[in-house]
User: What shape does this take?
Amino acid sequence: MLPLPSEDGQGMVEYGLVIVLVAIVVFLILTVFGSSVANLFSNIVSHL
Assistant: This one.
């Protein structure tokens, strides 16, 4: 049998891709809902 190629770096690449995808989703959510979230927190702080 032929030796299998090393897969040591594969896990790190997968974790990196997941982190990048999560960052993109968070950025998009903040872009779309950023002003409404800021208004919500402003209202909460003003009522305290």
In short: The chain has one helix and no strands. Residues 27 and 33 are 10 Å apart (CA to CA).
